[in-house]
Amino acid sequence: MIGLKWPENNKITVKTLAENSELYTDEIGSVSLLGSDGALEWKRDGDGLNVQLPKSAPSPYAYVLKVTKK
């Protein structure tokens, strides 16, 4: 997932990756932020994939979340 604007609250919800989504039926194994070494806190529920991002973006232009299946 590519984001162009860093969220002010450092949280993002990817609605297309919600539990029971027809768009992505596999189980999610991990979520990471490219350009960052730290682990991310994340949770998948009926609203989407909820990710707590670090306080600062790794780039001033865009950020990329890498989602891998279990």
Properties at a glance:
70 residues; mainly beta; three-stranded antiparallel beta sheet; globular
Which strands sit side by side, in order, in the main sheet? Answer: 1-6-3
Low-confidence stretches: none
Number of strands: 6
Can you count the helices?
Answer: 0
Determine the mean pLDDT. 95
DSSP strand content = 35-45%
Helix vs. strand class: mainly beta
Helical proportion, percent range: under 10%
Please summarize what this structure is:
The chain is mainly beta and 70 residues long. Helix content is 0%, strand content 41%.
Description:
The chain has 70 residues and is mostly beta strands. 0% of the residues lie in helices and 41% in strands. It has no helices and six strands. The protein has strands at residues 2-3, 11-14, 28-33, 41-45, 48-52, 63-69. The strands form two sheets. The chain has a three-stranded antiparallel β-sheet, with no helix packed on it. A three-stranded antiparallel β-sheet has the order 2-5-4, with no helix packed on it. Strand 4 and strand 5 form a beta hairpin. The protein is globular and about 35 Å long. The mean pLDDT is 95.
Helix and strand arrangement:
Elements lengths: L1 E2 L7 E4 L13 E6 L7 E5 L2 E5 L10 E7 L1
Antiparallel strand pairs: 1-6, 2-5, 3-6, 4-5
